[in-house]
Amino acid sequence: MKSAVETLNPTRVRLSIEVPFEELKDSLDAAYKKINQQVTVKGFRKGKIPARVIDQRFGRGAVLEEAVNDALPKFYTEAVNEGELNVLGQPEVDITELKDGELLAFTAEVDVRPEIEIPDYSGIEVTVDALEVTDEEVEKAVEQLRERFASTNPVERAAADGDVVTIDLQAKVDGEVLEDGVADGVSYTIGSGELLDGIDEAVTGLEAGGEATFTSQLKGGSAEGKDAEVTVKVTAVAARELPELDDDFAQMASEFDTLEELKADSRKRLETTKQYDQATQAQERVLEELLKLAEVPIPEKLLADEVQTRKHNLEHHQLGQMGLDLEKYLEIQGKTLEEFENETSEQAIKGIKTQFILDELVNKEKLNVNQEELTEHLMRRAASSGMSPDQFAQAVVEGGQVPMLVGEVARGKALAVVVEAAKVVDTNGEVVDLEDDEDEAAEATETAEAATEDKADDKAEEKNEA
After folding, report:
1. Where are the alpha helices (DSSP H) in 254-370?
2. Distances from the Cα of 223 to the Cα of 212, 218, 220, 228, 373, angstroms
3. Residues 6+ apart with CB under 8 A from 179
4. What is the spatial distance between Cα 166 and Cα 30, in angstroms, rounded to a whole number?
5. Closest to 210 in 3D by CA, of 184, 233, 230
6. Which phi and psi (to 5°) does residue 436 adopt?
7. Residue 200 parent element (H or E)
8. Which H or E run contains 54?
9. Lowest-pLDDT range of 14-18, 33-37, 149-153, 160-164
10. What's residue 56's pLDDT?
């Protein structure tokens, strides 16, 4: 076999391959055997029809077609390996010559990973938010905990903001009561915004037994999006009472003996959260600067496939779970279809560039992924997918997605290398040291995932559903 590689552009090549006919012998034998099992000829046992009879009865062309289809993938793979090509996607194959007994010649055009020169990233500087926890934030956190321990007591007065009312609802569209538009005994906190628009104004000021009618656009059900005439009747009013903020509350709501200890713990938790956010922010901004430094040609077909995949995942996974279609989603987002497609294309380009650069950095730095790192990553992926670790691992293995998970972890380690070399300062001008964060590589993996939007968990979920 002879092969030659022609570079069409930085991301696409054409392979020209010539195969002497004798190298098709195994595929020809397999073709005759396959046809033997599929046809019957009077006077011959099934599977025992001579090759010359098959040629006469069914045509030599049918045999050659079967043999060539069998042989092409093997010779294409040999040519790819011989040319040391890193191909992307499936090739477009064109048979240019087929001479029976002499020669098979064909071309294969295919996208390839472009050669990327990793830029000097040691001079990258980024600014992140300062790590500051205010007294107001601590008070808010304690207040949220206090809200969780609120109690309700029935009252004989008009309902006011913050009260919990028990209500009966009836919705009509065009004067007809909807089958799914009646609900009794619904508990609702006035001001929470958890039900229909306009309900807060309708029930405020009503005592038990009072009712009101208002118009609201339905957020779900058989008449979703339509304006309905809603009648609400208040059957009970209860006032929410918050516990006193004192040491007794601290002992009831936590493992601490005093309110000051509870507040100190809340401050520490907020600091930990902000440290994580600060590290993520640093990684995202370092990655943005790295992408600006590198020239990365984008394969057109790969980009088109990536855009289509992102749109498919949005429409059939994310929006489907929310009961929305693309048209409704764009209406909520206030975007046109053109704006959405442009944004999706930009995100896809960023994802491809991120993956190419970080993969190249993995090779340059000779970064490896050990079993412990892979297991930890798998556990995180399983948690985010809503599957058990065992279910997720089985689905990933059966779907052949283990290399994808390894790639995700490796890219996270590559990004961590760049972040470590960068200068990170906060808005106060203080240098931020991220090197001591033992979760830095895991956080960087999440950042890289967000940019590339890999499909391992989507594919695992699809496998699990099947």
Report:
1. 259-293, 300-313, 319-322, 326-333, 337-365
2. 21, 7, 7, 8, 49
3. 222
4. 76
5. 233
6. -85, -5
7. helix 199-203
8. helix 51-58
9. 33-37
10. 75
Q: Is 19 in a helix, a strand, or coil?
A: strand
**Taking 70 as the threshold, does the pLDDT of residue 438 lie above it?**
no
Q: What is the pLDDT of residue 465?
A: 46
- pLDDT above 70 (res 436): no
For the segment 381-418, what is each residue's pLDDT rounded down to a tens digit? 888 888 888 898 899 899 888 999 999 999 999 999 99
* Tokens matching residue 373: 């790192």
Q: CA 184 to CA 92: how far, in whole Å?
A: 63
CA atoms of 288 and 284, how far apart (whole Å): 6
Residues β-bridged to residue 98:
104
Place of tokens 């590559």: 414
Cα 241 to Cα 245: distance, rounded to the nearest angstrom: 12
Q: What is the DSSP letter of 221?
A: S
Q: How far is it, in rounded angstroms, from Cα 3 to Cα 8?
A: 16
* CA distance linking residue 396 with residue 398, whole number of Å: 6
pLDDT band, very low/low/confident/very high, at 463 (cuts 50, 70, 90): very low
Residue 435's pLDDT is 59
Dihedral (Cα; 157, 162, 165, 167), 10-degree rounding: 120
CA angle 174, 175, 178 (to 5 degrees): 85
Sequential DSSP letters for 282-311: HHHHHHHHHHHH------HHHHHHHHHHHH
DSSP string, 92-154: EEEEEEEETTTEEEEEEEEEEPPP-PPP--TT-EEEE------HHHHHHHHHHHHHHT-EEEE
pLDDT at 300 exceeding the cut of 80: yes
Whether 462 shows a pLDDT value over 50: the answer reads: no
